[in-house]
Amino acid sequence: MFRFAHPDFLYCLLFVPLFVALFLHSLHSRKKKFQALGDMKLLQQFMPNVSTTRPWVKFCLQTLAFVFIILALARPQFGVKEQTVKREGIEVMFALDVSNSMLAQDLAPNRLERSKQVLSKLIDDMAEDKVGLVVFAGDAYTQLPITCDYVSAKMFLSSINPSLVPRQGTAIGSALDMCIKGFGALDTESSKVIILFTDGENHEDDAISAAKLAKEKGIKVFVVGVGKPEGSPIPMDGSSNFRKDRNGNVVISKLNEGMCRQIAEAGNGMYLRVDNSNGVLRSLQKELNQLATTEMETTIYADYNEQYQSFVILALLLLIVDYFIFGRKNKRLSKIDLYK
Q1: From 307's CA, which of 151, 258, 271, 282 has a CA 20 to 30 Å away?
Q2: What is the mean pLDDT of each run of 10 residues along the chain (340 residues)?
Q3: Are residues 313 and 270 in the same domain?
Q4: How far apart are CA 262 and CA 282, in angstroms?
Q5: In 3D, which of 119, 165, 163, 126 has the Cα closest to residue 142?
């Protein structure tokens, strides 16, 4: 595998066409000045040591040296080694509801963003655990397979919005089934947990059976209720209006705590409700810390071999050669005839 550790430096290569344009402009201006003095063939007889090729050679050497220096600054790296690292932790699959009702603003800034904040802080608190991410509305999709790459997990999390799942609804059962499959082999001894973030509204499949299946496979299901039981209207994107039903009435989205509690009970887990404090975060961290951890093997890629040294050496050699090439012909060397 090949990569640049600092690829931003490569933008400096955009200066190369500018250098070429300036060099050509300089040659053209110089030629016009000589033409203004008289006939070029006659002038060349009075300037026998002037070379027309050496400026080109020096420019090419200097430009190549600049390119190699930029490549060196970008730190090309090659030759990745695979390392199998043993970690002790648990496996957690997060299921995040992204239906339109999660845009309700009874939690600041809204239900979905508040859920993402709690989820992000949970990932920050993890050290050797594996995490995966499933998003769902009317359908469920695996957004991130289970991994130890927390940077990727937070990157995917930041990009989540309701448009990821076109069909609306709350397919909690499908999301739980996908989380179960996301763990892969279930014969490992590590504790496995599903943490479900949802408002439980418009529930449309058998989430209770899916939670019981998870329990049978030794997976705990924690349910985090997002929203308030009294409910809140759902804002429409790009306007100050709220979503309305077919009769023109404003839709009030309410947290279905009863359903959330049933799912948590069926999944041998616990139910928590998100508010604008960090209480639910501390409770989840406490529960996760109490779960048994086991040694897991994870293949990671490390030890990139630095290749910038080669480019530095090439740049130095080109600059040294450029230093010894003069703009004018050398009088003594020009008198040497190698064919005598």
Answers
A1: 151
A2: 84 94 88 66 58 84 95 83 65 94 92 95 89 93 91 91 86 94 78 94 81 94 94 84 87 92 95 88 89 60 74 94 74 47
A3: no
A4: 22
A5: 165
pLDDT by residue (tens digit) across 107-127? 989 999 999 999 999 999 888
CB contact at 8 A, 214 and 176: yes
Strands of 90-200, DSSP E: 91-97, 130-136, 140-147, 192-198
Is 125 part of a structural domain of the chain? yes
pLDDT tens digits along 6-40: 889 999 999 999 999 999 998 888 777 766 665 65
Whole-angstrom CA distances from 197 to 113, 278, 289 are: 11, 15, 19
Q: Is residue 115 part of a domain?
A: yes
Q: How far apart are CA 279 and CA 61, in angstroms?
A: 65
- The position carrying tokens 């000045």 is 33
Classify residue 303 as exposed, middle or buried by CB count within 10 Å of its CB (0-12, 13-18, 19+): exposed
Same domain, 252 and 152: yes
- State the Cα–Cα distance between residues 232 and 246, nearest whole angstrom: 18
Q: How far apart are CA 293 and CA 290, in angstroms?
A: 9
Tell me which residue range forms the domain holding 284: 83-299
Residues in the chain: 340
What three-state secondary structure class fits 242? strand
Q: Which of 226, 237, 126, 249 is nearest to 172 (CA)?
A: 226
Q: Residue 133 domain-assigned?
A: yes
158 and 248: one domain?
yes
Domain count along the chain? 2
Q: Is residue 185 part of a domain?
A: yes
C-alpha 133/C-alpha 145 separation (Å) is: 7
What's the CATH code of the domain at 129?
3.40.50.410
Residue 20: enclosing H or E segment and its boundaries?
helix 15-37
